[in-house]
Specification:
Elements lengths: L8 E2 L15 E4 L8 E6 L4 E6 L3 E5 L2 E8 L11 E7 L2 H9 L14 H17 L3 H4 L3 H17 L9 E5 L5 E6 L12 E5 L3 E2 L3 E2 L10 E4 L6 E10 L3 E5 L6 E3 L4 E10 L6 E10 L2 E23 L6 E12 L3 E7 L5 E11 L4 E5 L4 E3 L6 E2 L10 E8 L3 E8 L5 E10 L2 E8 L6 E9 L2 E9 L2
Antiparallel strand pairs: 1-17, 2-5, 2-7, 3-4, 5-6, 6-16, 7-15, 8-9, 9-13, 10-12, 10-14, 11-13, 14-17, 15-16, 18-19, 19-20, 19-21, 19-22, 22-23, 22-24, 25-26, 26-29, 27-28, 27-30, 30-31
Length: 462
């Protein structure tokens, strides 16, 4: 008999593949709650002002109505009647918000007395974390804006390492050929669950239906005739913890986050035997000042995800620039993508910090340096966002060193701001323009360098 190594994953981790567990619960999106708050705000995903409901959403899960959700993806629409399927846990800072604030927790410092305003502030903070939504510039309600900024700051300060405990797992038994099912609530208390269905991809099980008792444990199940890497799954109506997510089954891929735990039909899986995390490739492609990173794993064990880190070539000062969720435990090849944007001219190296659910980690280094070169032509980009309030970003490209003048004018041709008036090296440059002291209206910004000039228009809306 061989020793078992179990690596557990509750559902699947949301990644670029959008992998799903089988036999899991379905959400049918309802209309929002009766009392709603709508706001007109600038949507960075569409580049236009929108009038939208902001706050808690409702859905019917496995026939039970009025389950609560927050939208986690501003850039994808969701409409009543949409069908979604549970997918995974979310980015740690989003997990922190869903588990720390309303409606998961009702009494805490700073909570707005109006629950709909508090929910709206939480929603804006989630969009800030997930989609870089600019709370300061685009939330029209001063009370909600101030509250959303506090929530987002709290998530950035405390949420980076937030991890949820699984509520539905498969555990190794005393006998090396045995395992058992464990069920608990999100606080670690045992929960009894009836009629848990079991499957195995190769070999046989001593039973294909089991239950857990008041201790949260099932009787031992024996595995026969299975090779290393066989997949065992269990499906039951178990607690779905706060921080779980639902993702659209259509091409829209809308993501909703669960703020309050409830029971739902859920599938968990484990691998018979041990599978290492095998990295097959790790490459980079440069497009102007964007670096597209791609890596492929052949197998993964207990993989929570990857921190993407960057350093200037020759330096040991590594900087975290992003995070991509892993695929838990799998023997199926997975491809991951991440784009590092607005990288300055220079030579860099990248590495992946692969983290498992126990907090263990290892590094995978890129074998070659990545060179972000100088642009081949002079260019001034449209400011973003546009319209803006009160800050916006202006990018410009210089193919050679030279003296640069970047100034802002009103419609009468009067200079209202000087943003750059100095020598700059060849490369990609970014300048922030804060127009807090200016009134709403149309403005022009002009770039002059090495005998070439260009003018662009922008709109300030307060």
């Amino acid at each position: 008999m061989k020793k078992l190594f179990f690596f557990i994953i509750a559902l699947f981790i949301l990644s670029v593949q959008y992998s799903y567990s089988q036999g899991t619960s379905r959400l049918y999106f309802q209309n929002p709650p009766a009392t709603t708050l709508t706001y007109t705000f600038f949507d960075p995903c569409t580049g236009a002002n929108v009038n939208a409901y902001v706050g808690l959403l409702q859905g019917t899960v496995d026939g039970t109505p009025n389950r609560l959700f927050y939208c986690v993806d501003l850039c994808t629409d969701v409409a009543p009647g949409d069908t979604l399927q549970d997918s995974a846990y979310l980015e740690p800072k989003i997990l922190y918000i869903l588990n720390t604030f309303y409606p998961k927790v009702n009494n805490y410092p700073g909570r707005l007395a109006n629950e709909y305003q508090e929910a709206a502030a939480i929603q804006f903070a989630l969009w800030n974390i997930a989609d870089d939504f600019d709370i300061s510039a685009f939330v029209p309600d001063a009370t909600v804006k101030a509250r959303a900024l506090v929530i987002a700051d709290s998530a950035n300060l405390h949420g980076a390492g937030y991890v949820l405990d699984a509520t539905f797992t498969l555990e190794p038994g005393i006998n090396p050929d045995d395992f058992y099912v464990k069920t608990q609530d999100e606080n670690g208390n045992p929960v009894a669950v009836d009629s848990i269905m079991l499957t195995i991809s190769e070999g046989t099980l001593s039973t294909y239906m089991t239950s857990t008792d008041v201790t949260g444990n099932s009787p031992d199940i024996t595995v026969s005739g299975a090779s290393n890497g066989a997949t065992i799954t269990a499906t039951g109506y178990v607690p779905l913890p706060s921080g779980s997510s639902y993702i659209g089954l259509t091409v829209r891929r809308q993501v909703l986050g669960v703020p309050v735990s409830f029971r739902a039909r859920t599938t968990t899986e484990t691998t018979w035997g041990a599978l290492p995390v095998e990295l097959n490739s790790f490459n980079a492609t440069v497009n102007q000042r964007e670096v597209l990173l791609t890596w492929k794993t052949l197998t993964e064990t207990n993989n929570q995800g990857f921190d993407i880190e960057r350093t200037v070539s020759g330096s040991e000062a590594w900087e975290k620039v992003g995070y991509i969720g892993g695929s838990g435990t799998t023997n199926t090849p997975k491809l991951y993508l991440y784009t590092d944007r607005k990288v300055s001219t220079g030579t860099y190296n990248y590495r992946l910090k692969q983290i498992d659910f126990n907090g263990n980690y290892e590094y995978h280094y890129m074998s070659a340096d990545v060179n972000v070169g100088t642009p081949d032509k002079f260019n001034l980009s449209q400011n973003y966002p546009n319209p803006f309030n009160p800050s916006t970003t202006i990018n410009f490209d210089m193919p050679a060193d030279g003296f640069v003048s970047l100034k802002v004018y009103n419609t009468s041709g009067k200079e209202v701001a000087t943003l750059v008036n100095e020598t700059r090296t060849a490369g990609y440059h970014t300048v922030n323009f804060n127009a807090a002291s200016l009134s709403s209206g149309v403005y022009y910004y002009r770039l002059e360098a090495n005998g070439v000039s260009k003018v662009m228009k922008m709109a300030l809306i307060k």
